[in-house]
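Re: the request from the purification team.
They wanted to know what the chain is likely to look like in 3D before they choose a buffer screen. I agreed to run a prediction and write the result into the notebook, where they can find it.
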Amino acid sequence: MSIDWHERARLLTPDTRAFINGRQHTTDGTFTTTSLANTSLANDGLEIAECSDHDVDLAVKSARSAFDDGRWRDLPPAARKQRMLAFADLIDLNREELALLETIDVGKPIGESLRVDAPSAAKTVRWYAEAIDKRYDEIAPTTPDAIALVTREPLGVIGAVVPWNYPMIISMWKVAPALAMGNSVVLKPAEQSPLTAIALANLASQAGIPDGVFSVIPGLGPTTGRALGLHPQVDKIAFTGSPETGARFLAYASESNLKQVALELGGKSPHVILSDAHDLASIAETIAWGIFYNAGQTCHAGSRVIVHPDHQDELIEHLQTFLRDFPVGDPLSETTSMGPLVDSTQLETVGRYVTIALEDGGSIAAQTPVAKEGTFYPPTVLTDVPANSRAVREEIFGPVLIIETAPDDDSAVAAANDTDYGLAAAVWSRDIGRANRVARRIRAGTVWINTFDAADITTPFGGFGRSGFGRDRSLHALDSYSALKTTWTDISH
């Protein structure tokens, strides 16, 4: 039986309070959300808790107390594992409500929220839970009269600050490995998307995560985010978002206690289509999904194409064909592939960048008409935009694809690397050796060959340059929420 998501949205009464020290917390101030599109979403006018410096201090101090008394850190690994597995099970059990909250918050199509975002959050928690009792520490090869243990110790209190484009997924990329290592976590969701974070904290508590170990503090960046970044009892900030905000967290760390900071920032990811690439229809479809999925609001979205001139016209024809039937519309319809942008500010930003591209000499090669009220921007393909245009060099974060040409491998690599970012890229070629040689020359944290956006929790995610220096996912994330400690014992006596 199909679900009437509009009716579910109408009846939904989400919790909008902060979650601190194992319970709902009412703040003195609130901020108001606004609806994303003319789709009868239920979030228009919701009053969300706005955490003040006092509220942030309460959350951090409860996290510090929980860490110091060992109520989570000192649990046997198998016990922490079981509670995190229970947390993952509850996410699965409540996936419909979580998916609906995600769609209400950010306009993501409900089909995506239900099939991708909620299951991915549960998978991440479950994967790190299973890793807890499968990693071993070390004994260093010292002289026979000593034993030197090398152990990984949890850092303490982690401040996780996440964006609005994939709230559940990115939150769990940070929360799950931090918890698995025995840390306490204070999560600040983006002001546009607080609802799933609050719900997840409630589920974690139901699963047996002790009070104070996982708190959620909604609020605005300049107040709540700043207070978390400056707090002297936070040991690390794990941030995903814009380079400008990431720089602020580096400044907060230097102004406070020199806390660690991990930054996963934006991207301007190129597809490099070499002269011997074949099956351009399939390549075009993959490229289209890579930029128009989630309305282009993806940090590693393939927003640039660097194509051999011989392939440009055919590639554009295939993109035009794709966009003719690309379903853009109501995010509460399971047949929708692309919903609205997150808010009117983002709509204005995307429109401004397209205007810049056209004023710089670019032209529209393909565009899907969108006769919708609300914050919808039509999927757009641009050509002839100069390489020095801001539209080429800066992150648009919307459904806009820019096509450039390069006549040979060297010029294609130079164009791919001619960016301040370095998050992801793709190389398309029939010659796997050639593709690998090109991929090795591209400065990006992930390079796909003959595919795009293939991912798994087992592989690290992050970038170079202006894309930051943090890494989410994989066992390496456990290392980033811990510190090496040497314990040297003299056994000569």
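For the purification team: The mean pLDDT is 95.
Please add any questions underneath this entry.
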